[in-house]
Amino acid sequence: MIGYVTLGTNNFDAAASFYDELFATIGAARVFETETFIAWGKSAGSPSLSIAKPFNGEAASVGNGVMVAIAMSSSDKVDAFHAKALELGGSDEGAAGPRGDTFHVGYFRDLDGNKLNAFCFVKD
């Protein structure tokens, strides 16, 4: 159902490097780009996450209550993705770990302050 999610950035080159390295850890790469927009995904046409310089020329800002969730296939992958985001300069918004009996998640903010998480559902 989701085609892509776009996050604004005030430092396009730094954001591009952050997401290049972060998404490489899960086999995602750039699937589309222009001078002001880059989208990462597993393949063209698959759900993707993108960054963009705001079209109106104003500064990018984070949305209060907005969060992008990245699906993972295991709790180990959640932990590794969260750790990589922090290693790349992201900030911790909630350590990776279980939340309840069946949900494993780690929350972080990217270099522009956008909130994301990596998550999986844990099977019994």
Description:
The chain is of the alpha/beta class and 124 residues long. The chain has a single domain, classed as Roll (2,3-Dihydroxybiphenyl 1,2-Dioxygenase, domain 1). The chain has two helices and eight strands, in the order βαββββαβββ. It has a four-stranded mixed β-sheet with strand order 1-4-3-2, covered by helices on one side. A four-stranded mixed β-sheet has the order 5-8-7-6, with helices on one face. The mean pLDDT is 95.
Number of distinct helices: 2
Mean pLDDT: 95
SSE order, one letter for each helix or strand = EHEEEEHEEE
Helix content: 10-25%
How many discrete structural domains? 1
- Measured by DSSP, the beta-strand proportion falls in 35-45%
CATH topology type: 2,3-Dihydroxybiphenyl 1,2-Dioxygenase, domain 1
Can you count the beta strands? 8
Give start-end ranges of low-pLDDT stretches.
Answer: none
Q: Can you summarize the main beta sheet?
A: 4 strands, mixed
Assign an overall shape: globular
CATH architecture classification name? Roll
Distance between the termini: 27 Å
Q: Can you say what the CATH homologous superfamily is?
A: 2,3-Dihydroxybiphenyl 1,2-Dioxygenase, domain 1
Itemize the secondary structure elements and their pairings.
Layout: E1 4-8, H1 12-24, E2 29-33, E3 37-41, E4 48-52, E5 68-71, H2 75-87, E6 91-99, E7 103-109, E8 115-121
Parallel strand pairs: 1-4, 5-8
Antiparallel strand pairs: 2-3, 3-4, 6-7, 7-8
